[in-house]
Write a structure and sequence with these properties.
The structure is a homodimer of 555-residue chains. With 555 residues, the first copy, chain A, is an alpha/beta fold. Chain A has four domains: 183 residues, 3-Layer(bba) Sandwich (FAD/NAD(P)-binding domain); 115 residues, FAD/NAD(P)-binding domain (3-Layer(bba) Sandwich); 120 residues, FAD/NAD(P)-binding domain (3-Layer(bba) Sandwich), CATH 3.50.50.60; 95 residues, Oxidized Rhodanese, domain 1 (3-Layer(aba) Sandwich), CATH 3.40.250.10. Chain A has 17 helices and 31 strands. In chain A, the strands form eight sheets. Chain A has a five-stranded parallel sheet with strand order 3-2-1-7-19. In chain A, β5 and β6 form a beta hairpin. In chain A, α1 packs parallel to α8. The longest helix of chain A has 15 residues. Chains A and B meet through α1, α3, α8, β22 and β23 of A and α1, α3, α8, β22 and β23 of B.
């Protein structure tokens, strides 16, 4: 058995180690275009920020160890130029010697990764204008930073763009972030991304959303000039292009392997391509969403590593049975830290469900990450999306401080298990004051969602309320917070009756409601829930504003 | 509808709020023996430690709010003396006035809680010898501490005992902890509890396990003298008895309601007792384990709160349908912080599975809580228990620093969903360097467990290895760590062949193995896994020591 693996990072390295564990006698050739195999690409922004101080820490498994421990024929600076599937050979360029040779395989695993997308604007190739994919890119950026860069412009407000904006600000640069869309973090719904943008702004990062870079020029006097469509411009000493990645599908395309509509290589649950002896893994393949079934390229480290295991297992002849591990699809679980905030997602976003016309409901809560009476409780916003018919969880997003990652992971597991919002109600999670609450945020989201499905708790989302106000069709609005809270800011046109006085003043509420349903809100939705229950039982139609005034301020 | 609730903490308070949300017109009477309703009993140790500085923070929902917001007829200092189920009345003692009266009910919810067990030794009633159940107990302890207590003795090494040991040490007292069993935290398996005991010892708490207190005396000269069975004795200015709790079942027993073998009140999935109009919730009831089906009293805040909701929903006439929430059983998810360590459990322990003769396998890993290349990674030990036939997860335990609570919660969700170790392999959890790894500890536990089930990776547990050594029947032992690691400490009798040299020295390994299987180990099990694979494929029977030398040192 001779296994050839193209690409020595994440998926490729995992596949190689797995293959060796399963077969001591196999010949395993690991071909990597760059000088480094098995490096930690997710660590690059933290290395540039100075949080990871030693470059060598990013070399997860040094070449020597791969060779000695796993007996891999690991060849860096070896670029695969083409595949000859008829002959079962790959054509390799030895980048050090400038020679070319052919390497036979019995099984082939492609792990070429994804390349940073370029904006396609004049000047994108200038020195000082960078993408960030590997250690060499990081070296170039580091050199520019050390040469005294003071102003940075980051194109793209996705995960990498935000990590780089934080990193550069952390190093003391003035940072401008330009994003074409109307929000940062397009993977997240707008109200979840909003607090992240606010955090960036509060740290002094200039955020320009809905703006398009049209040209990058080198000024004679030193700085780079970045021009935008609306005529606005910024000087920068360094520009980072982080507008996304595209699957490296050239080899696959050249060899006639099937590609998906996304441009990713098509694979089955064993990560086999359209050729039975060729597998593909990682950022270059498209996989189905476990929630929607929609195929997409998911460029994430966790899936890449697991796909590498799956491909190697199958390539090494593991029987096609239930015990065999197979790739079940991607959830798109992703997380980002931006200064003091954490934001993330698992499963489908509301934007994605809308695009696919998938029926869904949402529940949003704003709980503390642990018992409020224990010092240090940090706030979070947790949103779950679920099927209106069955309550099955379709996605979850969260933003806040400590404990956001925990709730997303719990909900990721629930989605994987096909669980429902009724299951969230009954989840039995760790409770001691430093860790959680007797009613965990996950339970709270379940209570609200299940209450909605049971009809106990009709609601209106902040987005829907905003649409009605924008359309000049405001519903009657009742603010059930205290007069002091009401005075600090409220939805325009709302009448204030504190929840504790609502029963005495029910006649006022009834006359306020008039014909249409009354929209009720408090700060986060809890008192609004009780108020809604009181109103409904007094025969007054009412909808609770989901997530309360807190959600409103983000709509 | 008139609902009477006995007990105003956790389950009782949750039931009252839920009942009001469902029914505005119901008369709801909340009877609480103590002066406080809805207080945070889980916060008491942190209040005593001074972490929670204001006593008022422990009053989760003040009496006035319960009355105003929820229109509850909330009556503190109202002890229910007996139940008259034939008349559907409770007999109430007004503790303030010393009077007694009867209160009629349509539905009754019992939430009496559990009382601290007493050791049954002379002197347990002395001043300065305390239990900790409510704010009044905390007040007494606080008074004693403020009066200048310098030496404390804590009886019982369970969750409360350890929290109190930490609390008292935190306040500067010399602390001795006495536990009858051979380990602290009997809810956990010994190797998971061990690092907690080590942490206590390293913080200067004296731990006496396998020791029994036989008498407590007041010395004439001031301190309390605690005597142990073996003649050992300690002076203390304060003694805390934290040896567990017993369900308060007197009312139920007196009224002829069915009790379980555990002494807890018997209830169905709607929390109904043997009387159709009487419900019981919280620490006084027994519930089935979702894993083993075994009935037990589970004295935890999360279940109590959810049970209160379930009981109130049913009592308020919620239809008995699929959307109706019901209590599905307890997982026993519990966590404790002891100085810098966190330890916890969800599902069944190995001790419990052994006692019930439930077939099970275990997998133990010792990963870092996030990417090792990102600064601040803290170690943890994660153990999963699973069904040998199906791989279904039966339980999980963890101990370590940051991130322990997250993995336990993820695994709690997996157990609730009936998921398997194959599912853990494929879990897609949040990965960015500050939060996790591309292969999360949960994935790692899945890899090891599934590898075991697939036969890739035979193992021996540290406990089994120890039994063989203790029995004078040592297997041949191979330490595949580096010579430097080997020199720092190893299992007696082991031969050292570094994994990277194993292939060259395979003949040595073969002759070492002799007839029986070779037991292989490294530091945490990863290199041992590869070595096991190498040996097996060279026809040498081998078992990897689960969790490696790290697990061995705890056995």
């Amino acid at each position: 058995m001779k296994l050839v693996i193209v690409g020595g990072v994440a998926g490729g390295a995992s596949a190689a180690a797995r293959a060796r564990r399963l077969d001591e006698k196999a010949e395993i050739v690991l071909l990597e275009r760059g000088p480094d195999v098995s490096f930690a690409n997710c660590g690059l922004p933290y290395y540039l920020a100075g949080e990871i101080t030693e470059r060598s820490k990013l070399l997860v498994t040094p070449l020597e160890r791969l060779r000695k421990r796993y007996r891999l024929d690991a060849r860096p600076l070896s670029e695969v130029a083409s595949l000859d599937l008829a002959a079962k050979e790959v054509v390799v360029r030895d980048l050090a010697r400038g020679t070319e040779y052919r390497e036979r395989f019995d099984k082939l695993i492609l792990s070429p990764g994804a390349a940073p997308r370029l904006p396609g604007v004049p000047g994108q190739e200038l020195p000082g204008v960078h993408t960030l994919r590997n250690l060499q890119d990081a070296d170039h950026i580091m050199a520019r930073l050390k040469a005294g860069a003071r102003r940075a412009l980051v194109m793209g407000g996705g995960f990498i763009g935000l990590e780089m904006a934080e990193c550069l600000k952390h190093r003391g640069l003035a940072v401008t972030l330009v994003e074409r869309n109307t929000q940062v973090l397009m993977a997240l719904d707008p109200e979840i991304a909003r607090p992240v943008a606010d955090e960036l702004a509060s740290q002094g990062v200039e955020i320009l959303t809905g703006r398009k870079v049209t040209a990058i020029r080198q000024r004679d006097d030193g700085p780079i000039l970045v021009e935008m469509e609306d005529g606005d411009r910024r000087d920068a000493d360094i520009v980072i292009m982080g507008i996304g990645v595209a699957p490296e599908n050239d080899l696959a395309r050249g060899a006639g392997l099937a590609l998906g509509a996304s441009g990713g290589i098509r694979v089955d649950a064993h990560m086999r391509t359209s050729h039975p002896d060729v597998y593909a893994v990682g950022d270059a393949v498209e996989t189905p969403s476990v929630v929607t079934g929609n195929h997409a390229v998911v460029a994430l480290g966790g899936p890449a590593n697991r796909q590498g295991r799956v491909a190697a297992s199958h390539a090494m002849g593991r029987a096609d049975n239930l015990l065999d591990n197979r790739y079940r699809g991607s959830q798109g679980t992703a997380i980002v830290r931006v200064f003091g905030k954490t934001a993330g997602i698992t499963g489908a976003s509301e934007r994605m469900l809308r695009r696919l016309n998938t029926p869904h409901l949402t529940a949003t809560v704003h709980p503390a990450h642990h018992a409020g009476y224990y010092p240090g409780a940090e706030g979070m916003t947790l949103k779950v999306l679920f099927d209106p018919a069955t309550g099955r969880l379709l996605g979850a997003q969260a933003v806040g401080g400590a404990g956001v990652d925990k709730r997303l992971d719990v909900l990721a597991m629930a989605i994987q298990g096909g669980m429902t919002v009724y299951d969230l109600e009954e989840a039995e999670l760790c409770y001691a004051p430093p860790y959680g609450s007797a009613k965990d945020p996950v339970n709270m989201a379940g209570f609200v969602a299940a209450g909605l499905l049971r009809g106990d708790h009709p609601q209106i989302t902040a987005a829907d309320l905003k649409r009605r106000l924008d359309a000049g069709d405001p519903p009657p609005l009742l603010d059930v917070r205290t007069p002091a809270e009401h005075a600090r800011g409220t939805v325009p046109g709302a009448v204030n009756i504190e929840v504790d006085a609502l029963r005495e003043r029910i006649a006022e509420a009834r006359s306020l409601a008039g014909g249409g349903p009354l929209v009720v809100y408090c700060q986060v939705g809890m008192r609004g829930y009780l108020a809604t229950r009181i109103l409904l039982q007094h025969g007054i139609e009412a909808r609770n504003l989901s997530g309360g005034y807190t959600s409103w301020t983000r709509a």
